[in-house]
Amino acid sequence: MYLTWLDNNSWLLELNNQRILIDPWLVDVLTFGNLDWLFKASHRQDCQIPENIDLILLSQGLEDHAHPPTLKRLDHKIPVVASPNGAKVAQGLGYASVTTLNHGENFILNNQIEIRAFPGSSIGPTLIENSYLLKDLATGFTLYYEPHGEHSPQLKQFAPVDVVITPIVDATLPLIGRIIKGNKSALEVAQWLRPQAMLPTANAKETTYEGILTKLLKIEGSIADFRLLLEKHNLSIQVLEPNPGDRLELQKKFTSPKSPSF
């Protein structure tokens, strides 16, 4: 399996010869409701759009997961699997094949990859978006992805999981509270799933931010802190810290720190 982090919450997963693009924001700016005075994020340079994509996987319908300018640029013949709200975005942009996954439902990609939807991020008081468990049907290799750090106890029955992608730090706004839950949440899912590796998401290395919200946002914790937390709880899990564009090979057993693999 290969994983390429494309910064923020965007990932390219290569599993069993299938190329899955997860929550892509690759071009143009990111705003919410075109309120760039409130929040605006920009890549230092646009990401190269990956070729030969077999599936686009959307966990949410918000712009930082179902980014309209990026989805407009991608080939609309690529199949899309998405949460109900993500599916509405893709359908509105004219994608030819859009599959909506509700919690507990699954999708089989080309008889090779199973994708199962679980409850994920809470958006407002009533809306709960998706997290995903992906499984290579040939090898049994599994990967879990949730971009805001809200994890369903339903996952416990699928442990152990090989790789977990989730936030590892907290992001907090005054009066609203934690909008990204890392730290204790990441520890909890680590205890449930006992992965061999975890990778942080929802952070950024090649992105600049503007707007009122960015001045109020408070980040708590670090990858170093999380590694210590795992050690304190006797969890032997490797926390990988890729740079945007790094293509990591993961197999069933780690061979070296520079070349992580399972």
UniProtKB/TrEMBL annotation:
InterPro entries: RibonucZ/Hydroxyglut_hydro (IPR036866). This is MBL fold metallo-hydrolase. SUPFAM superfamilies: Metallo-hydrolase/oxidoreductase. It comes from the Bacteria. Pfam families: Lactamase_B_3.
